[in-house]
């Protein structure tokens, strides 16, 4: 049963926006499994709605996964708390806001709100994943994880350079994460996309554990013109969410030194 479950997860992991449809043969080769057992597994998954047949021996993801995803989002308590605060910030400032968590060494976006002044950001839709070393939310989440865990993530996934500004060595990232812990926030200064910056802050639960990160993203020229204001904005917004979740330990050290 455990092996079957593992294989099913491996099958689902093959599907992506760039490869949304697979044949039985392709999946069998990708997983290095016999075609007969692969066909049987895919048929069972289709019967449960996890996959759907699009032709003889061809499959796409099933609609039941969407149902699972909606249930997950609707029952994630901190997402509801964060969305309320995000809506207020977006309404006032008109910039794009994100909410993200760390899963399997990658940032996964679980909420995104765009404002009237927002630029289109295609990489960060709900459910999208990005490497953690290059984004504001990713650096916040890595900064509050043990370095042994961070090092393992970097070894497994590498440090892809999205732009000339992307941090690409573990040593530089370690120094950056120490600054993030000291300041209480992280910045992405055109590290994922030229012309785009963001500032992110941690969200704590009632136990004082960082469970998510919230960010505001905007064009570089607007960020540079009002950097201090945007930093204060996102840190205070994340603090509000944390307090609503039962966290009460005061403002971060950087704020107390202002």
UniProtKB/TrEMBL annotation:
Keyword DNA-binding annotated: yes
GO biological process: negative regulation of DNA-templated transcription
Record has Glycoprotein as a keyword: no
Domain IclR-ED, residue spans: 64-247
GO terms of molecular function: DNA binding; DNA-binding transcription factor activity
PROSITE patterns from the UniProt entry: HTH_ICLR, ICLR_ED
Domain of life: Bacteria
Ranges of residues in domain HTH iclR-type: 2-63
Keywords: DNA-binding, Transcription, Transcription regulation
InterPro entries in alphabetical order: GAF-like_dom_sf (IPR029016), HTH_MetabolicPath_Reg (IPR050707), Tscrpt_reg_IclR_C (IPR014757), Tscrpt_reg_IclR_N (IPR005471), WH-like_DNA-bd_sf (IPR036388), WH_DNA-bd_sf (IPR036390)
Coiled-coil intervals: none
PANTHER family in UniProt: HELIX-TURN-HELIX TRANSCRIPTIONAL REGULATOR, ICLR FAMILY, TRANSCRIPTIONAL REGULATOR ICLR
Record's function text: May be an activator protein for the gylABX operon.
Name used for this protein in its record: Glycerol operon regulatory protein
